[in-house]
Amino acid sequence: MDLSFSPEDLAFRDEVRAVIRDEYPTELHGKIDEGEELSKDDFLKWHKVLAAKGWIAPAWPKQYGGTGWNSVQRYIWSEETARADAIRLMPFGLSMVGPVIYTFGTEEQKARFLPGILSGDVWWCQGYSEPGAGSDLANLRTKAERFTGEDGKEYYRVNGQKTWTTMAQHADWGFFLVRTDPASKPQEGISFLLIDMNSPGVTVRPIITLGGEHEVNEVWLEDVIVPVDQRIYDENKGWTCAKFLLAHERTGIAGVAASKRGVERIRAVAKSEQDGGQPLIANPFFKRKIAELEIDLAALEFTELRTLAGEASGKGPGPESSLLKIKGTEIQQRLTELALEAAGHYGAPYFRSFGEGDNESAIGPDYSRRVAPTYFNMRKTSIYGGSNEIQRNIIAKMVLGL
Amino acid sequence: MDFNLTDEQTMLKDTVQRYLADTYSFDARMKSVHSGAGWSPSVWKAFAEELGILGAPFAEAHGGLGGGAIENMIVMEEIGRAMVLEPYLSTVVIGGGALKAVGGAIAEAVIPEIIAGNAIIAFAYAEPQGRYHLHDLTTTARADGEGWVLNGHKSVVTSAPYATHLLVTARTSGAQRDAGGISLFLIPSGLAGITRRDYMTVDGGAASEVYFENVALGADHLLGRAGEGLPIIEQVVDEATAAVCAEACGLLRVLQATTLDYAKQRKQFGKPIGDFQVIQHRIVDMFLEVEQAVSITLMATLKLDTAERATAVSMAKAKVGKAAKFVGQNAVQIHGGIGISNELAVGHYFKRATLVEGLFGSVDHHFARYETLAID
């Protein structure tokens, strides 16, 4: 056991730092630090830079376009990008459907879909939740009926409603869980379909969340025709893909490196904010909360490192990743609580960006502008990806055998 | 960066775990407790001769296994798992750690005796007024010719009733709370002028109040330089604190696993209580605390030889202390009535975990120390 970086690791870290310094788009500087809402274009600018370098998918196997980095190098990558306040790329293609396709897809499907994910030319969204299927995801009702078309080929006709679909308004394609066998047990009649969001019958309607953002949507599917070759893995075996994807999603969800950067930011704010003639950070109650957060974050970081070491020795992400999801999201939420608390009065003004060229001067300090919306928005983290209560059910059943 | 144990370390872990599982049953432990001795000399001898673990963190030149902090972590986690009474912590980790830190003739002489199981060291550092502050000392060692004269009172010196040596912190100059002027002595426990009031501790161990009255010490009892002992004491206590965190990990793993087994067997309302979600989630939360305690203990252990030592150790002890309380209390709660009886092992694990929570500093103490080191 050893915590130190090898000379090769240090050289790699220097290389990563140089790439971020020289190639991170200048127009994106400051956007994360100030908590600005990000546009699709913002994400794409950084995505394209990394895609051109071949650095877009560090977690993928090299044969499918991964970087071939080892787990230490991937750790360095996430640390350094977080430290530099670089945008975190959208997970739907790179972290979610991509691994499902290269793990369960046919050679033809891999050739068809993976390049667009890597290049950023195709944006994905996730069609899982439904109005009646949230935590009880296997209760989903969206149905896909199989038929033979006039051209003699096989198709599904898809009808139903999905909800909480993040970024569906920008997505070119979506991956959907649909019911292909209504007669079998809930988890056994589900299939994993890739659907072109421009297909006739797909309607996307915005849902505005507590911070005023348009991130999530309702997606209506009305007689949407989907060729059978857009189904990943076997018919009625979609739950296998769904579980695999959720376990993958949960490890990334811990967000350790970003939270470490978030703590630094709050410390800086608490040094400048005044409280009774002293910096806020000297307030023993606030200081204790920062200390607790930092200590919990260190415990989470080393839990993640232990998990990564386990994965490196051949264990894939398993139900233990639920632990990372629970603790990671709790910490992310506590960070936003502290940021709002630190802002004091200036958590209250409702700030709206009027876009480029907005000359109106800001109210309060820059860092306070989005602390309340961010706090409101981040309540989502303990709900999405399987709520933290569902994660506890998973650990109870899969790890503890209850 | 590497998180895997070496083959030798894996073997050490397996060997200790198997040996304790075979020989150190709960009943055998309770015999030592009920004897009033609070330990078993024959077990200690077996640790030295059959198991050979007393040399785990010492150089091969001294007859040790050539290990260090990680080996101590491995052994201490197993000691926690089996709730071992015998003084590996005070003798090997603390006494041995101090000797390794100062080196010289006394280290050459005593380390082989530790490995052989002949030297048993108790750490006399706490004082009634000092709480967890290592430098708050009223015990004095006054220079007298070549040697020293020791006077004072040390509190709750674990293993003192049967120790061959006492590792004593004392002020050789300066005021009660000065950082300078503190010295460390390793002395035979039977010197004239040493008196003890022996008692059992609530977890079944043995300890003493130790009184020094004009105890004459030779120059060779001083470890390191006179008046410059505090950095060594802090280092040794940080190493001991990390080791105690590892012991806690072993205790908590057992508390969590025992509670899980019980919840699967105990029936109420016609089904195992583990079928109830309210119990399931409580046990999951115990599991989460244990895993994080293990993680942060690993962090602290791996940082013992770095500039971040003190910060990392306080982070770990604060986190592990909280986990010890949460897991211990919930283990008793989920066991229900039987959890508060003295019959089951679970209650004894809870008692030991409770003492570990306060050992070398409470949660509050380590939060405050972390804040001073890392935030102020």
TrEMBL record, chain A:
Molecular function GO labels: flavin adenine dinucleotide binding; oxidoreductase activity, acting on the CH-CH group of donors
Presence of the UniProt keyword Transport in the record: no
Signal peptide: none
Record-linked Pfam families: Acyl-CoA_dh_1 (PF00441), Acyl-CoA_dh_M (PF02770), Acyl-CoA_dh_N (PF02771)
Cofactor: FAD
InterPro entries registered for this protein in UniProt: Acyl-CoA_Oxase/DH_mid-dom, Acyl-CoA_Oxase/DH_mid-dom_sf, AcylCo_DH-like_C, AcylCo_DH/oxidase_C, AcylCoA_DH/ox_N, AcylCoA_DH/ox_N_sf, AcylCoA_DH/oxidase_NM_dom_sf, Mycobact_Acyl-CoA_DH
Location of the Acyl-CoA dehydrogenase/oxidase N-terminal domain: 7-121
UniProt cross-references to PANTHER family, sorted A to Z: ACYL-COA DEHYDROGENASE, ACYL-COA DEHYDROGENASE FADE29
Record protein name field: Pimeloyl-CoA dehydrogenase large subunit
Source organism of the structure: Polymorphobacter multimanifer
TrEMBL record, chain B:
Keyword Magnesium: no
Record domain Acyl-CoA dehydrogenase/oxidase C-terminal: where: 227-362
Names of required cofactors: FAD
Every Acyl-CoA oxidase/dehydrogenase middle domain range: 122-215
Pfam families hit by this protein: Acyl-CoA_dh_1, Acyl-CoA_dh_M, Acyl-CoA_dh_N
Domain annotation Acyl-CoA dehydrogenase/oxidase N-terminal: ranges: 6-84
UniProt signal peptide: none
InterPro entries: Acyl-CoA_Oxase/DH_mid-dom (IPR006091), Acyl-CoA_Oxase/DH_mid-dom_sf (IPR046373), AcylCo_DH-like_C (IPR036250), AcylCo_DH/oxidase_C (IPR009075), AcylCoA_DH/ox_N (IPR013786), AcylCoA_DH/ox_N_sf (IPR037069), AcylCoA_DH/oxidase_NM_dom_sf (IPR009100)
Keyword annotations: FAD, Flavoprotein, Oxidoreductase
Single Gene Ontology MF annotation: flavin adenine dinucleotide binding
SUPFAM superfamilies on file: Acyl-CoA dehydrogenase C-terminal domain-like, Acyl-CoA dehydrogenase NM domain-like
CDD domains: ACAD (cd00567)
Superkingdom assignment: Bacteria
Similarity annotation: Belongs to the acyl-CoA dehydrogenase family.
Annotated protein name in UniProt: Alkylation response protein AidB-like acyl-CoA dehydrogenase
Source organism: Polymorphobacter multimanifer
